[in-house]
Amino acid sequence: MSTAIYWLSKDFRLEDNLSLHRAIGSETELSFVYCLDPKDLTPHNFYSKSLGEFRLRFLSETLLDLQAQLRTFGQHINVVYAPPIDTLDRLTKRHNITRIYRSNNADWNERALFKRFKESHPKVDVICSQTSTLFETADLPFEPEDLPKTFTLFRKRMETLPVLIRQPLPYPTHLPNHVLDIEWPQSLFDKHRRKGSLFRGGSAEASKHMKAYFSGDLPQTYKETRNNLDTWEDSTKLSAWLANGCISPRQVWYSILDHEHDKGENESTYWIKFELLWREYFQWYAYAYGSQLFRFDGINGKKPMTSFYSERFKRWTSGNTSFPIVNACMKQLNETGYMSNRGRQLAASCLIHELQVDWRYGAAYFEQQLIDYDVASNWGNWQYLAGVGADPRGSRRFNLQKQTETYDPNGEFIARWKGESGATSNDSVDAADWPIMPTDTPKGAQ
Q1: pLDDT for 379-409, tens place per residue?
Q2: Is the CA virtual torsion 255, 259, 261, 265 positive or negative?
Q3: Residues 6 or more apart from 26 whose CB is under 8 A from it?
Q4: 166: left (phi over 0), alpha (psi -120 to 50) or beta
């Protein structure tokens, strides 16, 4: 007897989930599976892990929340701690899996995984649906591989489309029965619950926050406050739940429309939609360019004039550079798993242009640390700043002193996160690993 599984990835919600909606309409038996890959918890070539402590905690909370919702339907999540390709192969053979429902997200590695799986299991139907974008492929006025070269071109085309963004799908009224009954390794998640966090995972928490934000007046002033570095109310704070699929971009979009209906439309409410379109652009950017998202020379084949300096990278990650504003941003990230959008631009610009370090090391460190890590937005933005991505004007270098005067004129953010306690120099050795002579060396000393 054949059965089907629902492969959880970046779609930890029951509401507005097209992939789940299709499975409910076709299956009488369906088992939910989440696979945690052990290699995501160990350092890789860029000296970071794919899944850091804050992200793992958020994931644990998200799984527990979804588990509670599924139990009301007599369902549950089967969590497997093993390499995904091994898990898929074993489950398919042992339980005669003939259909797999999954979300076709922007993660190139996951798409490559299922391509390999299909090659070895051609009789298994892998049914993909768009669940992490505003638009579906059929809605686009171009083929995904013909994505406009810049965001501005993309935005202008999408904003003039006659096709409306589809309404979010409702919460299900029933679910198929489950077949698999795998006990998940709870202790693996428990041991990572140490540091506090600004965010709590799960679609219930996401919906609660989204409703509270858009029922108030904060969206009316979003454009004026969005670049602030440290205040909770100054931006939507929805990115962590969006990145993990606890809510969909369509749910956010229609929440904006409801807010505009109740409280009025202005430049700030438009700007939230504008930034959702930025997110959308990077999702399709990741689809279009695949593994080029991770290449040193990006999508243009032009290598930046940077390298890898281990000491500079370590100083940057620990907030111990000669740039106080960057130190404060990095210490905030390390302590909370969060950094503002403006802070990310300053920290990235510093690593690339001031410290001249290979941008991929910074992108990988953000992947490890950021609770709201999204593969498309993170790597796409790092490429943008490094001059190897979608920016037609080349790399973006920020004047850190001017940015400090603009966004932290009284030094409150730097003081709170002890940004002034950094080093006075970013190197202790020169390029040939010879000690740099201290400034107080006696005259004539060698």
Answers
A1: 999 999 999 998 767 668 999 999 999 999 9
A2: negative
A3: 4, 99
A4: beta
